[in-house]
Amino acid sequence: MAAADYRRVIVKLSGEALSGSEPFGIDQATADRFAADLIAAQALGVTLGVVVGGGNLLRGATAASHGADRTIADVMGMLATVMNALALESAIERRGAKARTVSALAMPQVCETYERRAARRHLDEGRIVLFAGGTGNPFFTTDTTAVLRAAEMGADAVLKATNVDGVYSADPKKDPAATRYERLGFDEALDKRLGVMDLTAFSLARDHAIPIIVFSIREPGAVESVLRGTGRATIVGG
Ligand SMILES: Nc1ncnc2c1ncn2[C@@H]1O[C@H](COP(=O)(O)OP(=O)(O)O)[C@@H](O)[C@H]1O
Ligand SMILES: O=c1ccn([C@@H]2O[C@H](COP(=O)(O)OP(=O)(O)O)[C@@H](O)[C@H]2O)c(=O)[nH]1
Predict the structure, then answer these.
(1) What whole-number distance in Å separates Cα of residue 35 and Cα of residue 94?
(2) Which of 16, 21, 124, 176 is the most buried (most CB within 10 A)?
(3) Ligand whose nearest atom lies closest to the CA of 59
(4) DSSP label at 180?
(5) Is 223 within 8 Å of 159 (Cβ atoms)?
(6) Could you give the CA distance from residue 191 to residue 199 in angstroms, rounded to a whole number?
């Protein structure tokens, strides 16, 4: 299937990307640019769910390496994803499109609690659904959350929007000689332990035959270009 044929996708947005050129936190101008990008992608007739990370605010494993209790640190990481989702939700709504944050951690004063059927209905009705709170469990990542929600929502693909323009033979930030793949099978990604995504996420995607498209969110309009099949990206398992 060409990327342009996808009807429903889950966009995984790295938390780090939301800080824009700042070292930390939520950069409103960047949130606004992502909102514009998502709305442009939706205008192609694609229904969109978004899983946002929390790395711009807190990563559980990093906090634990500094002495925090891992499970508590992971809860803090999941709470960070809720803040990011709310920032994106309001940026999308400021532009006049409909968005709904649903959280795997119940916080009824803040947003809807994730429930599979209700979330599917929001997508069917054309709302951009922001899946917050990760899976709701420690020791998982938002990459795994994106694949999980893609399986539950009946999505055709996960679009992993990050700070690299695809999957490389090694981490391109550490190895300047690393070469970029255009396409890659799940087994190869798993066997070679290509670190762009965690192995739990890759294996869940393989089990459910959900392709993962990795691309850079730095270019404005990147989500739309990937959906049109014109953007620079690596397709894993497609
Ligand atoms: N084989 C690889 N190909 C591409 N990127 C890789 C690879 N191995 C590690 N990476 C790293 O994965 C990161 C992208 O994943 P992402 O989930 O957005 O960030 P993080 O893991 O820091 O939260 C990039 O910063 C990149 O340096
Ligand atoms: O199901 C999940 C998803 C996320 N997290 C926590 O939330 C943090 C932020 O998510 P992630 O690191 O995936 O964000 P990203 O790297 O995309 O910014 C993680 O470090 C974990 O501590 C978690 O505990 N369970």
Answers:
(1) 9
(2) 16
(3) 2
(4) B
(5) yes
(6) 10
**Domain housing 122:** 3-236
| pLDDT for position 4 | 55
DSSP letter, residue 29: H
Spatial contact of 215 and 159, defined as CB atoms under 8 Å apart: yes
Q: Is residue 212 helix, strand or coil?
A: strand
- Helices 116-124, 142-153: inter-axial angle, 10-degree rounding: 70
| CB of 173 sitting under 6 A from ligand 1 | yes
142 is in an annotated binding site: yes
pLDDT at 47: 97
Total structural domains within the chain? 1
pLDDT value of position 1: 46
The DSSP H or E segment spanning 41 is helix 28-42
The three-class DSSP label of residue 90 is: helix
pLDDT recorded at residue 142: 98
pLDDT of residue 78: 98
**Which pLDDT score is estimated for 99?**
98
- What pLDDT score does 125 carry? 97
**Model ipTM?**
0.95
Question: How many distinct helices (H) and strands (E) make up the chain?
Answer: 8, 9
Give the distance (Å) from ligand 1 centre to CA of residue 131.
Answer: 21
User: Does the C-beta of 217 come closer than 6 Å to ligand 1?
Assistant: no
Angle between helices 142-153 and 199-207 (to 10 degrees): 10
Whether residue 188 has its Cβ less than 6 Å from ligand 1: no
Q: What is the pLDDT of residue 3?
A: 52
Q: What parts of the chain have a pLDDT lower than 70?
A: 1-4
β-pairing, 212-216 vs 47-52, is unpaired
